[in-house]
Amino acid sequence: MANRFWIKAALLFTFAAAISGSPIPALLLAADEEKKESEEETDGPMLTIGSKAPSIDVEHWISDGNGKFKPVTEFEDDKVYVVEFWATWCGPCIASMPHLAETQNKFLGKGVQIISISDEDLETVNEFLERPVRGAKKSAVDATEDDKKEEAPKKKSEAVTYGELTSAYCLTTDPDGSVKTDYMEAAGQNGIPTSFIVGRTGLIEWIGHPMSMDEPLAEVVAGKWDREAFLEEFRKEQERDLLMAKLSQKMRKGDTEGALTLLDDAIANAEGDEETVSAYQQLKFRVKVSSAATKIQGDEVEEGLAELDEISKDATDEEKAQISMLRVSLLLNKGLHEDVVKTVTAMIEAEMPDSSMLNQLSWQIYEAAVEDKEFPKEVVAAATTAAEKAVESDPENGTILDTLAHLLHLQGDLDRAIELQTKAVDNAGDAPESAVEEMSAFLKKLKKEKAAQ
Fold first, then answer.
1. Nearest to 81 by CA among 104, 113, 50
2. Can you count the helices (H) and strands (E) in the chain?
3. 127, 213, 228, 435: which sits with the fewest CB atoms below 10 Å from its CB?
4. What confidence tens digit (pLDDT) does each residue in 354-385 have?
5. Do the beta carbons of residue 373 and residue 336 sit within 8 Å?
6. What angle in degrees, to the nearest 10, is found between the helix axes of 227-252 and 26-35?
7. Which helix (H) or strand (E) holds 323?
8. Pick from 116, 114, 159, 115: which is nearest to 141 by CA?
9. Which domains does the chain have, with CATH numbers?
10. pLDDT grade for 10, boundaries at 50, 70 and 90
11. Which neighbouring-strand residues pair with 161?
12. Beta strand 170-173 with 112-118: parallel, antiparallel or unpaired?
């Protein structure tokens, strides 16, 4: 439960977001705009564990478990329901569909009905349901008994569509968003997919990601679920989510001091809970850095850089490395190349970043150099030194070797670039297939250039 919150917290104040010009991801901003809530209107959620589940008024019931279920408005006693929220644009929602189908089949004879609800228009959902499920074949999913017999003629496998996959449970859409309001917003839930387990007495027993509901659902069905224990854990998460909503409002308005005050109060209230206090401290760090980054991107470069220096004084070694990485990115974007060289040199001399961070830093500079034909050679040389340091620390890492080879090629050292790229391909290890293909293609390019000399 706590891990899910901290992931959302990390997404709220990432350095990548700061570099892009906004300390808050666009999707979260959109959600805040949609709610049109003022800071004063952000109160605690009304719906929680143990609350009576609101009735549902879904407009379009697209699938009904192949005729096994009927549309539901009021929840029946002695039955268990899973009310799940999804969307066609949501990758994790789509990834959860096979699990939902499997779960529905598993609990089919035990009084469980899964109702999955989108708030998109019917046409959008129907178009999505016509798409094939990647890697799934009909013969492997719903082969008939005759198909399974050895003597039966083999049939050509056909791709399973999302419509066929989700036919195992109730897939619906409710364009007016009323059910989403009654559940998601009332419970303070901002991200999908999110599932609500409604127990045999019509009360909400559990709220969370559908991929994590197996154990709670089994215990609810078996009558062994400890609602009170989960309520205590969940209440903490709702308080954290409420804090995140308030923080996002502060940051949208550029009220850094207000955001920091909120976090100071939260840290004081969480005294004794080491995990929570540590996470809030990390958020404070990110809020400060985000504020400084915004200034650097604007017209307050010197002031923003001074703030980063001040933040670094009390930062951990890992945080200092993160600040330096961000600093290089911001300076590159501003075209302050002399300061980039100074920062990279200081990082190397301090032996602060690990090989992975040095590699990221070097590749970022390489990409900038490729895009700018007049890019200063001094900056490329600094990046090469950083990449050399990374290779020294991790000499068998194919990705790092690949970075150094690219930088050497950029500077005309073709022979060593070929040597390192050959080693990079040989040490690709668990790199994605696409990355290995790119490494091999670059090696081929280098050899072709060498042959043409």
1. 113
2. 21, 8
3. 228
4. 889 899 999 999 999 998 889 999 999 999 99
5. no
6. 100
7. helix 317-334
8. 159
9. 37-222 (3.40.30.10), 243-452 (1.25.40.10)
10. very low
11. 132
12. parallel
